[in-house]
Request: fold
Amino acid sequence: MMEEERYDAEQIQVLEGLDPVRKRPGMYIGSTSIDGLHHLVYEIVDNAIDEALAGYCTEITVEILPENIIRVSDNGRGIPTGIHPTEGISAATVVYTVLHAGGKFGGGGYKVSGGLHGVGASVVNALSEWLEIRVRDGKHEHFQHFDRGEYKEPLKIVGDTQETGTIVTFKADAEIFETTQYDYEVLLKRMREQAFLNAGIRIIISDTRDENEPVSETLHYEGGIRQFVEHIHAVKGYESVGDVIYVSGRQDDSVAEIAMQYNDSYNEVILSFANNIHTKDGGSHETGFKNALTKVVNDYGRQFGKLKENEKLSGDDVREGLTAIVSVKLTECEFEGQTKGRLGNPQVRPFVEKLVQEKLMSYFEMNPETAGTIIDKCLAARKAREAAKAARDTARRKTAMENASLPGKLADCSEHGVENTEIYIVEGDSAGGSAKGGRDRRYQAILPLWGKMLNVEKARIDKVYGNEKLMPVVTALGTGIGEDFNLEKLRYDKVIIMADADVDGCHIRTLLLTFFFRYMRPLIENGNVYIAQPPLYRVSRGEKKVFYAFSDAERDKYIAELADKDGNSSKVAVQRYKGLGEMDSEQLWETTMNPETRTILRVKMEDAIRADEIITILMGDKVMPRKDYIEKYAKTVENLDI
Reply:
């Protein structure tokens, strides 16, 4: 039984006021988009998770109620309700009305915490139309209501109870956010992640907005991050190689745990976390893990005759087909980078490195069959890497011999600078001809593609080099691929995929996006990749009244506008475009290529993990995960043209 630490009103420290939050919400939650909206939920849940980390909370309930109201309940100790020594009001009120007030600033409330370090509760309150808290302290239930961060009545006792915990109910402010419509799947993914990272905690998430189809899921994983690895493999349809390897250790107040398992894919998935916060840009903990893994595999391989003394496997060889979760919990996290996505604590790298080296080598020695299988897999990866290097060198020599010539089918633009230039990657020669005829040749380049290209999800990089469908794209963009990729060499500001609005066109788009995602990912991360939106219909009455519709609803609206006053639409002509080639150059320019009138969608990398999952499911060679995904989401697809 752990000794209960002091957590009362005196542990709540105040740093500054709340006023700036509503004026500049983006400074506190990143944005006022749907991402910022979901961030509100994360902040309240993170407070409950902190109670779990401290050893006082075992169950958290997250509810999406009708009208997009959120209710988060936990069975922790409950926010302190006593009078704050310097503020003169309830400590619970201080937490929800004063910026930088909480038990996470050295007051002894928490040794380890995530979230915005005390900012979260007050920020959520400030950005909510209204918020209510109910605090149960084992004797009484306390209640307080807030409107946009302000309150009229202080925290008051509303009943007796033997239970403990906090219930927070709030409605996000529509004056602040672009949308207040929560995405259940996004919240479910985050809650599942938290349940994996905190073994044994139970998180119940439900959505009752649709009374006819309420959904609920209980997330409880005694195996913690071990089950996280298994879940990733199940979702992606990977065949596992060997068992899940788990190591953990402690150094002073720091704790690290790592779960890893190999699979039959060529892809590396390493997810690292610090105090339950996903460090998408890695950091000292991830570096320590990678260094140790490479050293152990090489040392073991030499020790048992799998590698010669002068042979060495690279980090890429060792991590091909690896899924790993690296989680550290620290008294104080130091995050780096513009997005705070990288852990900087320097002492964490040697701690994790030493832990993994010792325990992984011990595991290999006790499980020689598994270790041998892993070494063999790494050797196969090295062989493929060497083949890829040979193919890359051949491609480089060929390019040099051709005097860096551009693809023959590329109709380049006349502007030489990158700024404001764009390349359309167009499906088919006929559509390419229309695009070439309709473009503004000063800044718009056209590269036609023909036939189905290589599905890189099912191929190693050595098969990509020299591929007649993909290499023209690589040459035209100028960046190189894989480890040779250099964003500074990109020849165009916008890379626009333009394909037919049918199944074949969708396949082309997906294949290209898969290629960009796997081998030219910085293009997507930097916001250079777009998808053109050609119209589905041409709605006209005579030659002068012409509209282009991008959906069935828009088509019907234009038909109604052009019909006679009595509703007779017989004089309205509707043409369904099956392909880009059906449009002449002028029509293609006006609808799809003219910056003044076109619509193009930027491809974003807001959730690389989810994108990775979907691409693997849809483009991989495992049938069942793809079938399950299609069955799950088929009813949400509109305008499917088969």
Remarks:
- The chain has four domains: 9-220, 225-385, 406-533+601-636, 537-600.
- The radius of gyration is 28 Å.
- The mean pLDDT is 85.
